[in-house]
């Protein structure tokens, strides 16, 4: 009788162990692999995050800072006059009135650094931004702008690909 | 008439895993400028991207500009 009871307890413990291992795989291991695969591993110290946030906020205009702090997004006006809205760093976090843009920033840096880099690229060289970003739009106008940007950046030697 | 003091330090910021690494240098110190320029060029060879943010609007830098008061250097960009 006692043996059967111990066997039952052992079986239940084994089942619980397997279920816990499965939970770990689903909730810990797979998300970690996903972050590594997308280059989004967040291994930053609190100090690094704070430092990046401070620099990011210091480079926003007062209006951009107010907008970011209130709504977690801000507008950037490019030299052409086009306005883009930047939301928290993610795929396709940049939008115009009729298009979405995906611009990844390389390197293992806090997201605030990546947001700052996105803002600077749009403000300093919109053509390079358009050449680099993936564009999703219903408007064919953006296809033409993207092609023109690629041509311009190739002519300036800014793109590595042939 | 105000006396002319030393020029304020220029700064090169490299965005990295610590948030950023800041290198301040005296623009009148030729050796310091050369050292920073070498660091800049090394990063450009690794396809980093540099912005002069001391002007409004800022500008993309392809070569080191010792007159730029603040330069921010980011890793390269790619489409998602």
Compute the average pLDDT of chain B: 91
State the major sheet of chain A.
Answer: 5 strands, antiparallel
How many strands appear in the DSSP assignment of chain A? 5
Structural class of chain B: alpha+beta
Residues in β-strands, percent of chain A? 5-15%
Specify the number of helices of chain A: 6
Unreliable stretches of chain B (pLDDT < 50, length at least 5) are: none
Overall 3D geometry of chain B?
A: globular
Number of domains of chain B: 1
Which strand order do you get reading across the main beta sheet of chain A? 1-2-3-4-5
User: Which regions of chain A contain 5 or more consecutive residues with pLDDT less than 50?
Assistant: none
Which shape of chain A, going by the Cα principal axes?
A: elongated
Largest sheet descriptor of chain B: 5 strands, mixed
Mean pLDDT across residues of chain A:
88
- Indicate how many domains the architecture of chain A comprises: 2
This entry's quaternary arrangement is heterodimer
Biggest interface found: A-B, 39 and 24 residues
Query: What separation lies between the terminal Cα atoms of chain A?
Result: 78 Å
Distance between the ends of chain B: 56 Å
Tell me roughly what share of residues is in helical segments of chain A: 55-70%
What does this structure look like?
The complex is a heterodimer of chains A (162) and B (80). Chain A is an alpha+beta fold and 162 residues long. Chain A has 2 domains: 1-40; 48-155, no CATH class. Chain A has 6 helices and 5 strands; from the N terminus they run αααββββααβα. Chain A has a 5-stranded antiparallel sheet. The radius of gyration of chain A is 23 Å and the shape is elongated. The model of chain A has no long low-confidence stretch (mean pLDDT 88). By secondary structure, chain B is an alpha+beta fold. Chain B has one domain (10-74). In chain B, 20% of the residues lie in helices and 36% in strands. Chain B contains 1 helix and 6 strands; from the N terminus they run E-E-H-E-E-E-E. Chain B has a 5-stranded mixed sheet with strand order 2-1-5-3-4, covered by helices on one side. In chain B, strand 3 and strand 4 form a beta hairpin. The longest helix of chain B has 16 residues, at 30-45. Chain B is globular and about 50 Å long. The chains are: A alpha+beta (162), B alpha+beta (80).
């Amino acid at each position: 009788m006692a043996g059967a009871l111990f066997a039952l307890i052992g079986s239940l413990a084994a089942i619980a162990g397997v279920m816990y291992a499965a939970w770990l795989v689903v909730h810990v291991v797979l998300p970690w692999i996903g972050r590594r695969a997308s280059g989004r591993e967040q291994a930053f110290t609190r100090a690094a995050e704070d430092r990046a946030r401070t620099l990011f906020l210091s480079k926003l205009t007062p209006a951009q800072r107010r907008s970011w702090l209130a709504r977690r997004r801000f507008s950037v006006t490019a030299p052409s006059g086009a306005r883009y809205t930047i939301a928290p760093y993610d795929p396709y976090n940049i939008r115009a009135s009729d298009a979405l843009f995906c611009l990844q920033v390389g390197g293992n840096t806090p997201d605030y650094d990546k947001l700052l880099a996105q803002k600077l690229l749009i403000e300093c060289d919109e053509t390079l931004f358009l050449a680099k970003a993936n564009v999703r739009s219903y408007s064919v106008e953006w296809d033409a702008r993207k092609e023109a940007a690629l041509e311009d950046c190739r002519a300036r030697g800014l793109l590595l690909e042939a | 008439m105000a006396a002319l003091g030393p020029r304020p330090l220029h700064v090169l910021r490299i965005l990295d895993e610590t948030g950023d690494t800041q290198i301040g240098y005296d623009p009148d110190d030729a050796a310091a400028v050369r050292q920073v320029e070498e660091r800049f060029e090394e990063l450009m060879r690794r396809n980093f991207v540099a912005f002069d943010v001391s002007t409004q609007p800022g500008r993309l830098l392809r070569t080191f500009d010792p007159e730029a008061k603040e330069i921010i250097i980011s890793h390269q960009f790619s489409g998602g």
